[in-house]
Amino acid sequence: MTKTTIALASALSISACGTKKTIDLQGHRGCRGIRPENTVIAFEKALEIGVTTLEMDVVITKDHEVIVSHEPYFSHEISTDPSGNLITKENEKEHNLYQLSHEAIEQYDVGLRPHARFPQQEKVAATKPLLKDVIEMSENYTLIHSRKKPFYNIEVKRDPALDSLFQPPVETFIDLVLSEVQHQPFSDRVCLQSFDLETLRLIHEKAPEITLALLIEAETDVEENIKTLGFTPNIYSPYFALINQQTMDYCNEHSIRVIPWTVNKKEDLLHLLELGVDGIITDYPNEFKVILEEKEVEIR
Asked: Measured between alpha carbons, how far is 140 from 263 in angstroms, rounded to an integer?
């Protein structure tokens, strides 16, 4: 019996044995595999597919708007400047979002340029949206189409080394984000995630009711990571290859949900289902939804 066959058999038995009957299917940057990342078009497509959660990133503009973007500048992988020139790796950081107003940012395109790593991505004109516009679209979409209201997993893209250069000071950054998501009708469906411990600590202090996720990218001990953070987050979100049984045992014992990123291969999905993760962040929610339905794993 091959490893793949074993994994398939294990995944098929999930519903029967009751290990994990439901899962949080999260569309990474909307659905980056098939639509331009972090755009309204991508988030709308993810809702059409039927994700549980829209995963996205936010940074701050010159006029202190919270804008959806993975980088605090226009990445050379996806961006075209207002004159129609392709942004290069050498000059991308000159197109600093924190030095541009929202009006100026709207003059750039982030949807037409072919993406070398995602050849299936449909190319369509698109701009970087404001967080509030993404949420408004999403809430309206689910109302019009009689869908379940989605959750929002929002990464606060703060790097301490970039304060006052590509982003405001940390407290200002957090206050701006909280002003968009706190005390709103959808607040109980918001999770704020970050790799930055100071960011998570400040959010926990200012808004203890907000769901928080600790992002992890290096192979480190889960217990030590939680101790270093200083409080127990609602969600532990490591790079998917770092998850093992020890991670799951610790998190289950401490009532911490485990939601790995970014999972794009079927065999990795099946392995993580076998371990019993609570959610999956993927660039291809369209493909994973089919697999989950085949395995009778309910998407929450």
From this structure: 29
The 8-class DSSP code of residue 118 comes to -
CA distance 182 to 11: 38
Domain boundaries, position 42: 22-72+126-299
Q: What band does 21 get if pLDDT is binned at 50, 70 and 90? A: confident
| Number of independent structural domains in the chain | 1
Phi, psi of 261 (to 5 degrees): -130, 165
Distance CA 51, CA 149 (A): 10
CB 10 within 8 A of CB 272: no
- The whole-model pTM stands at 0.93
Question: Which residues on neighbouring strands pair with residue 43, listed in sequence order?
Answer: none
Contacts of 78 (CB under 8 A, 6+ apart): 36, 37, 110, 111, 113, 115
Alpha-carbon radius of gyration of the chain: 19
119 belongs to a structural domain: no
Q: What average pLDDT does range 105-120 have in this prediction?
A: 98
**C-alpha torsion angle, residues 131, 132, 134, 140 (rounded to 10):** 160
